[in-house]
Every structure is written in C-alpha cells, then in structure tokens.
Amino acid sequence: MFQNDAFRALDRQESLRLLAKVPVGRVVYTRQALPAVLPINFSLDTDASVLLCSSPDSDLVRAIDGVVVAFEADEFDAATRSGWSVVVTGRATVVTDPAEHERLSQAGPTSWMPLRDPVVVRIESEMVTGRELRGTRGTQ
C-alpha cells in the first residue's frame, strides 16, 4: 500500500488548536430534508464547544436547535498545496440560561451582521476530527 507522508490525521488537541486560529467555518445541517452548508463566523468556548451568534428568528437557528450538526473550518495554501481541515460533530443548542448567555455575549463570538437580540448557539464537540496536508509546490 502506498504511504503518503504529506498527509496525516490530527489528534483532538491539535485540531482544536488549529480551529481556534480561524474566524469563519461552515455549519453542515439539514434543511427541508436536504443537506445545507452555511458559512458563519464562530469562536470556541473553554470546553471546546463551537459558538455561533445569530438572529433568534433565523432559519439556521430553527433548523439546528436540538439536532446533531457538523461544523467545518479549514485553511489552505494553493501555492504550496498544503493546509488543514477540522470537523466538529455534535448537538447544537440555543443557550437559554441567562447567566451563560451573558457570559458568552461578552466573551463569545460576535456576528459580522448587525443583530437585534442575538442568540448564541453551542455545538458540543462530541467528535473532533482533523487532517493536514503538507504539500510542496506542484511539479508538472
């Protein structure tokens, strides 16, 4: 079997470390029984949950509250053909506890869109997978 030293799986800690470096990822969920992907800015909480901030009446919040979703973020360099990708899978829930909502409103993500009365959505990091590609400049 061909072994490729340019590709490697990342452990949970390294995956979370990389995930914390980027401001935007993608929520993967189901909308009207079809797969949907939405880019959104995020942050990580101290327990490694992914935190999103959105409008309480958004289609996204209604679709993901209480269900299992995936969240993916990555960083790539086309010139060197290298980069990484991390996927977090877990249950998404709207934060309803007033004290927790206040804490996250201060320390959590801020939406890039102006919002009135935003809600915070937490995606538990039940499963975290990552992979890295350490490429080199293409030779053709």
In short:
The chain has 140 residues and is of the alpha+beta class. It has helices spanning 12-19, 59-64, 98-107; strands spanning 7-10, 24-31, 34-41, 43-44, 50-54, 68-77, 82-94, 119-123, 127-133. The two termini are 24 Å apart.
Walkthrough of the structure:
- By secondary structure, the protein is of the alpha+beta class.
- It starts with 6 loop residues before the first strand and ends in a 7-residue tail after the last strand.
- The chain is built from three helices and nine strands.
- Strands 1, 2, 3, 4, 5, 6, 7, 8 and 9 form a nine-stranded antiparallel beta sheet that branches.
- The mean pLDDT is 90.
- The protein is 17% helix and 44% strand.
- It is globular.
- It has helices at 12-19, 59-64, 98-107; strands at residues 7-10, 24-31, 34-41, 43-44, 50-54, 68-77, 82-94, 119-123, 127-133.
Secondary-structure blueprint of this entry?
Elements: E1 7-10, H1 12-19, E2 24-31, E3 34-41, E4 43-44, E5 50-54, H2 59-64, E6 68-77, E7 82-94, H3 98-107, E8 119-123, E9 127-133
Antiparallel strand pairs: 1-9, 2-3, 2-6, 4-5, 5-8, 6-7, 7-8, 7-9
Describe this protein with a few key phrases.
alpha+beta, Pyridoxamine 5'-phosphate oxidase family protein, 9-stranded antiparallel β-sheet, 3 helices, Split_barrel_FMN-bd, 140 residues
